[in-house]
Design brief:
17 strands; 6-stranded antiparallel sheet; mainly beta; 267 residues
């Protein structure tokens, strides 16, 4: 089984990032200009809910993910990586070794803890590695659903499950003290020139602007939540049927001294 993703180089114009041939690794960069004077809807980060594990009516043993933007007749499930792999792929993986907390472990058994998203529509089952993998399986009718769609891939609780998507959304801290996952102290957030999430209807879909931490992920580890290596302001376009384009309005590849970002922890 192979996955296709798109790559783009750093630029100073307006390139779009779409999908092209590659396996499991993508570097997202680009640029764009944000329209000024646009009335935008502002919202804090939200993630789709995650019910307890249970077998599905479609015969998928996984944890169903409920999201308002999923089309009728389609379903989303968190499944373990082996559920997406054929026997030959698993045989190759079992010959490898991975590290978890400094210990070398056989790759076969621990990989069952690696979760990925699977979309099911009738007899069609599709691994979801990138937002546009859900094209045709969703119906996005308003700005709230557009935000929920992009946050499925970038929220602190789910970003680590999408190795190809290296942006985790960040927002101003909601309470004093150590920031919660996906949050930054308000003063630091503003000093970096980051912005709150905004979405506006545009053409056949929606345009979203938001701030993100750039996450460095190691694909060889068992459970990799990533580490922050920079910040970016994203400019994303989402159509009503789930087509997706991402541009980078601004980014820095460094983390200023003293800047704090709340990260998820292993549970």
């Amino acid at each position: 089984m192979s996955y296709a993703v798109h790559m783009s180089s750093v630029c100073h114009c307006q390139p779009t990032l779409r999908r092209g041939p590659q396996i499991l690794l993508v570097l997202l960069t680009g640029c764009a200009l944000c329209a000024s004077g646009v009335a935008c809807l502002q919202s804090k980060s939200e993630s789709p809910s995650e019910p307890a594990s249970m077998p599905s009516a479609a015969g998928v043993a996984g944890r169903p993910l409920k999201a308002s933007f999923v089309r009728e007749g389609c379903s989303l499930f968190w499944v373990t990586v082996p559920d997406l792999m054929d026997a030959s792929s698993m045989k190759r993986l079992e010959a490898l070794r991975v590290e978890q907390l400094g210990e070398a472990l056989p790759a076969g058994l621990p990989l069952t803890l690696w979760e990925r998203l699977l979309a099911v529509c009738g007899e069609n089952r599709r691994p979801v590695m990138w937002p546009s993998d859900l094209r045709g399986m969703v119906r996005i009718d308003d700005g709230k659903q557009a935000l929920a769609f992009v946050r499925l891939f970038s929220s602190p609780g789910t970003n680590s499950r999408f190795p190809d998507f290296r942006y985790m959304e960040v927002a101003e801290a909601s309470t004093p003290g150590w920031p919660m996952p996906g949050e930054m102290p308000t003063e630091q957030f503003r000093q970096l020139g980051l912005r709150r999430a905004e979405v506006v209807a545009e053409g056949e879909g929606f345009r979203v602007w938001r701030s993100a931490a750039i996450m460095q992920k190691s694909h060889g580890t068992l459970i990799d939540l990533g580490r922050v290596v920079g910040f970016a302001i994203l400019d994303e376009t989402v159509t009503r049927d789930g087509d997706y384009v991402i541009r980078v309005l601004w980014e820095t590849s460094t983390v200023p001294k003293g800047v704090t970002v709340g990260l998820p922890s292993l549970r």
